[in-house]
């Protein structure tokens, strides 16, 4: 399907350590025209791309992201946990990813991780960085914290926003209208053809997550979703090439 966004979830996270430059580069190599990643803030106010609030799982540090400086985080090995061949991979900054996609047309889905930790002025900092690189048309900001999405839209109406949610949100297209969101980032179980159609009639698109098997990808493509978030961008690229 032409135009569908193939979002590599935390980069090509099935093949590389998640949320590293290696994963982002590999995702693009495997056919992704979109990157999904997670944004948090260090103790010194720097924006880094990592999923967990705690550094332990991917770097071995016992600290929370919010309690470590960028310099401390940059000394950590974010690759060995996945495979020894990735030893020395670092936790990247948002700026590093934005530099990678500049001039490429690759879309970037920035998930603000501001539910467990409420980072002060995270929205302002992310928007400033996106604008600094002139990438407002290539970025969509998503979050499970919908208050944060409303704030983003007030600060930067030109940047798309996507509502992250699981199952059971009633008439989500109407809710999206209330919070001025552009997309529904639903758990893929919460996507059926009638809902995709209802949303599209109101100018709202679906970007379901996290879809890793080809049969489900085909089903969602057939429904008319606008993007799919996957750990396997190569599998989605193959499905899209069948059309």
UniProtKB/TrEMBL annotation:
Molecular function terms from GO: phosphoric diester hydrolase activity
Gene3D superfamilies for this protein: Phosphatidylinositol (PI) phosphodiesterase (3.20.20.190)
Pfam families: GDPD
Stretches assigned to the GP-PDE domain: 4-240
GO biological process: lipid metabolic process
PANTHER family per record: GLYCEROPHOSPHODIESTER PHOSPHODIESTERASE, CYTOPLASMIC (PTHR46211:SF1), GLYCEROPHOSPHORYL DIESTER PHOSPHODIESTERASE (PTHR46211)
Protein name (Swiss-Prot/TrEMBL): Glycerophosphodiester phosphodiesterase
Species this chain originates from: Cohnella fermenti
